[in-house]
Amino acid sequence: MVSNTEDKLFQAVSYCILAIVGLAAVIPLLYVFSVSLTPFAEVLRHGGYVLFPKEITFNAYQKLIGTSTIPRSLGVTVYITVVGTAINLILTTLVAYPLSRKYLPGRSAFLVMVVFTLLFSGGIIPTYLVVKATGLIDSLWALILPTAVSSFNVLIMKSFFEQLPEELFESARMDGAREFRILVQLTVPLSLPVMITVGLFYAVGHWNSFFSAIMYVTDRTLFPLQVVVREILMLSQQPLENAEDQVPTVTMQMAAVIFASAPILAVYPFLQKHFTKGMLLGSIKG
Question: Matching InterPro entries, A to Z (predicted)?
Answer without folding.
Answer: MetI-like
